[in-house]
């Protein structure tokens, strides 16, 4: 491991600087002086100027029974690698870590290159480890150690300097650690990390030396020693005692990795305080930096890293299920891997949770009984351990896991019982001997722990297995699903336990409100009277019952996306947008000949501006001033291939605003279908208001755009304006709307957010059948061809072709593939290229292939 600070080597004058740095955070002068005296007293423990071996009774042994020694020839090393290897051997000899050997054993050396270009020295002990008897000494679990720290205020962490190299090896077993280089044989005098039983030996040494009899103020995990106390006075005593033991045994610690008398400390990748624990920010950032997995190994690595913090994540197993679906395949398919939208959403969901505070768990209060809420589904079991302390709900632990194939075939009662007993077993360290009340949404399990014979063999076996904890269960209560929720805490609000229902003062909503009247008279009202809208067409409708109700009906704060379409709708203003030009049109009285149109793909909201000429500057003006500076930058901008878009100015704007861009295929309006759909509406509606010469079309453009934006869209079922702005458009022709009084600005924000969620939920429900209908209408019996780079194709002719002219030109060569359906083709012998959709190209069948087919 590398230290964040340069390694401090206290010698003479330097030692004062070292201990000053270790105690500079202590604000009380007397306490700081006391700790300075303690560190001065044990200065040899902090002296890392030379390597030392501990004087201890336990030495590492390597039991191999009566096996023949194994030996191999040294691996080939380049001259550069031999130089690195020789320097490493010289350093180890100087520190008395190794010595020369004449052993019949010999293991090879591997030099693993690091990202910075240097090498890591590794001895390949796999052959030796294969014949070594395993040490069964138990390692403490992370949860066991963290739970020991509950409620303590002051922490000191000591990290042993190259801890393994301070543990001596038994003299008779040193020859077994021999490694071979081109220059000879060497054997270890001290413990090497890659030996099979190295961790058990190290933990045994530290337990016997420090932890035994001191479990109430010190924990040890390998080379990390954490001292904890309730008061600063006790802490001085505890630190003195531990340092005295280390100095007597001639252990040395690394000053740069030590912290003295802190109230907040990092231990086992967790941040520890008197109140509770949270993940280490550095580890969280490391997880956030992991890109979307492309292979099975990468997916498993991601699940492993985030799984270490699953106790902080409600419904971890449920969120991870899509990823497990592609990583836990049975039989011959276990090596197959793919990352579909379902898996990507799970991946993104985890990262969202890790960045949503508070990511925090409270330490248990030993004087307060626990509440365990359990739940199960067809694929998982889980629970939440919590306490009510001083009227506030405190969450101690989240846990969940997927059901095995056998468990998933069990009955509901068996699965619910499994959830209870599995959670109790996993939470032993937290619950201890405290009492616990269990909430379940399965009524047959009420107080089933008191029954001698439940009448189900599997449930009876659970009770038998957990009989030691049954006396701690005060009661098993039945709570219906709607009450047995931990969704309030899932939202991770700071005000835990508060009721988040909106307060509506009496008299602020009148019966004249059309929305209230509509709801109360729903059984009698068959039709809703529409307000006039100018200009209008037979598809534009402004006031519908669902949009009225959406503006006032509250929804739960825990509403989540139910499918990928829903999730995309929630990101309406961050989605794709389409930019296209209409024209040239008849020159207007003001000299305008073009209309530039920008459409948001999800909300269908349209922005249009008229211009005399369609040049790069006008396209840039619409994109920046009329859209980005008003509505924000879209994630992706789809534009056509006109010169007014494919130029240096537009490219610079797109790069500056971090927008992904894509060009639609030439002569294929389907690739820019959102804006082309509006163009069709635009032309028909605008014609109704123009004079015979069509010279005033630019006067009516914004009215037509407004009618489109405020009318009900056939796909979403809502007006584009409502989806884009989160509120209903108020026409100047509407009568005065009733007022809803909201006491504070924050309440208005909640009101807007809830209205928007209602609209988005309903929009998602409207879009899905339209997508399905379009798929059936246009996708039946169609399968696009696939081409490779270098293939020869013909390109369809669209312009300047008479009725008897060639419909296909070519051959052209496939130069580049752009996504799944677009290709860059080039004319052979020239530098001319063009972007084509797969439907616009046809593969060239060579003549000799045709001859073979004819034969």
Automatic annotation (TrEMBL):
Keywords for the protein's UniProt record, in alphabetical order: Endonuclease, Hydrolase, Nuclease, Nucleotidyltransferase, RNA-directed DNA polymerase, Transferase
Region feature Disordered, mapped onto this chain: 548-569
Annotated ranges, domain Integrase catalytic: 560-728
Superkingdom in the source lineage: Eukaryota
A GO molecular-function descriptor: nucleic acid binding
Biased composition annotated in UniProt, kind: Low complexity: 552-563
Any single Pfam family the record assigns to this protein: RVT_1
Domain Reverse transcriptase: start-end pairs: 93-272
UniProt keyword Nuclease, yes or no: yes
GO biological process, one term: DNA integration
Nuclease among keywords: yes
The name this protein goes by in its record: Uncharacterized protein
Organism for this UniProt entry: Rotaria magnacalcarata
């Amino acid at each position: 491991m590398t230290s964040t600070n340069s390694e401090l080597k206290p010698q003479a004058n330097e030692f004062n600087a070292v201990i000053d740095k270790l105690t500079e955070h202590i604000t009380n002068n007397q306490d700081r002086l006391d700790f300075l005296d303690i560190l001065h007293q044990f200065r040899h423990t902090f002296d890392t100027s030379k390597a030392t071996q501990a004087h201890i009774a336990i030495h590492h042994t390597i039991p191999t029974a009566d096996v023949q020694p194994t030996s191999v020839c040294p691996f080939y090393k380049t001259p550069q690698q031999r130089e690195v290897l020789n320097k490493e051997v010289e350093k180890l000899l100087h520190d008395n870590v190794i010595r020369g050997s004449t052993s019949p054993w010999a293991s090879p050396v591997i030099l693993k290159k690091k990202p910075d270009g240097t090498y890591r020295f590794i001895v390949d002990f796999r052959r030796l480890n294969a014949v070594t008897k395993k040490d069964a000494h138990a390692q403490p679990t992370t949860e066991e150690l963290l739970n020991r720290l509950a409620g303590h205020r002051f922490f000191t962490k000591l990290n042993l300097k190259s801890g393994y190299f301070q543990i001596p090896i038994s003299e008779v077993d040193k020859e077994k650690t021999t490694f071979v280089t081109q220059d000879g044989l060497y054997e270890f005098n001290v413990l090497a990390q890659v030996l099979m039983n190295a961790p058990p030996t190290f933990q045994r040494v530290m337990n016997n030396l420090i932890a035994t009899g001191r479990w109430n103020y010190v924990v040890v995990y390998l080379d990390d020693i954490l001292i904890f106390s309730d008061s600063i006075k006790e802490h001085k005593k505890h630190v003195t005692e531990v340092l005295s033991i280390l100095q007597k045994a001639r252990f040395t610690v690394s000053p740069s990795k030590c912290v003295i008398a802190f109230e907040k400390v990092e231990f086992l990748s967790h941040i520890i305080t008197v109140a509770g624990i949270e993940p280490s920010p550095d580890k969280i950032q490391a997880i956030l930096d992991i890109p979307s997995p492309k292979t099975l190994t990468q997916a498993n690595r991601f699940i492993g890293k985030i799984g270490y913090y699953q106790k902080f994540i409600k419904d971890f197993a449920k969120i991870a299920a899509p990823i497990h679906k592609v990583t836990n395949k049975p039989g011959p398919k276990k090596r197959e891997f793919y990352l579909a939208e379902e898996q990507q959403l799970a991946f993104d969901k985890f990262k969202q949770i890790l960045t949503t505070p508070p990511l925090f768990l409270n330490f248990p209060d030993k004087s307060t009984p626990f509440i365990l809420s359990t739940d199960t589904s067809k694929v998982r079991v889980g629970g939440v351990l919590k306490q009510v302390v001083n009227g506030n709900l405190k969450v101690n632990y989240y846990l969940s896991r997927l059901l095995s194939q056998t468990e998933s075939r069990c009955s509901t009662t068996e699965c619910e019982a499994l959830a209870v007993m599995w959670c109790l077993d996993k939470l032993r360290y937290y619950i201890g001997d405290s009492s616990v009340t269990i909430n379940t949404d399965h009524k047959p399990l009420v107080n089933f722990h008191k029954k001698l014979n439940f009448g189900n063999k599997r449930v009876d076996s659970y009770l038998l297995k957990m009989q030691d904890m049954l006396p701690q269960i005060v009661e098993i209560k039945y709570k219906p699903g709607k009450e047995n929720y931990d969704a309030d805490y899932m939202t991770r609000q700071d005000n835990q336990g508060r009721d988040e229902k909106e307060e509506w003062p009496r008299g602020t909503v009148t019966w004249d409100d059309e929305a209230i009247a509509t709801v109360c008279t729903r059984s009698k009202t068959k039709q809703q009277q529409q307000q006039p809208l100018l200009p209008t067409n037979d598809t534009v409708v402004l006031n519908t019952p669902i949009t009225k109700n959406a503006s006032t009906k509250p929804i739960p704060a825990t509403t989540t996306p139910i499918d990928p379409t829903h999730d995309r709708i929630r990101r309406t203003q961050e989605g794709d947008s389409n930019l296209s030009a209409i024209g040239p049109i008849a020159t207007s009285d003001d000299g305008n000949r073009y209309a530039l149109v920008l459409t948001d793909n999800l909300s269908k909201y349209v922005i249009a501006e008229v211009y005399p000429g369609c040049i790069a500057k006008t396209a840039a003006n619409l994109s920046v001033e009329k859209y980005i500076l008003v509505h924000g930058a879209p994630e992706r901008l789809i534009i056509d291939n006109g010169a007014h878009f494919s130029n240096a100015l537009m490219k610079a704007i797109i790069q500056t605003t971090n927008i992904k861009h894509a060009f639609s295929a030439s002569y294929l309006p389907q690739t820019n279908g959102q804006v082309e759909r509006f163009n069709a509406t635009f032309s028909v509606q605008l014609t109704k208001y123009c004079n015979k010469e069509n010279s005033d079309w630019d006067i009516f453009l914004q009215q037509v755009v407004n009618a489109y934006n405020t009318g009900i869209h056939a796909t979403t079922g809502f007006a584009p304006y409502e989806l884009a702005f989160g509120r209903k458009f108020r026409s100047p022709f509407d009568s005065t709307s009733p007022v809803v009084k909201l006491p504070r600005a924050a309440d208005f924000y909640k009101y807007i957010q809830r209205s928007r969620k209602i609209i988005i939920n309903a929009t998602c429900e409207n879009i899905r059948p339209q997508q399905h209908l379009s798929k059936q209408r246009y996708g039946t019996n169609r399968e696009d061809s696939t081409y490779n780079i270098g293939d020869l194709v013909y390109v369809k002719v669209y312009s300047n072709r008479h009725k008897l002219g060639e419909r296909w030109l070519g051959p052209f060569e496939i130069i580049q593939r752009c996504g799944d359906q677009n290709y860059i083709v080039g004319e052979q012998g020239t530098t001319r290229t063009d972007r084509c959709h797969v439907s616009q190209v046809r593969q060239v069948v060579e003549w000799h292939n045709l001859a073979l087919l004819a034969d």
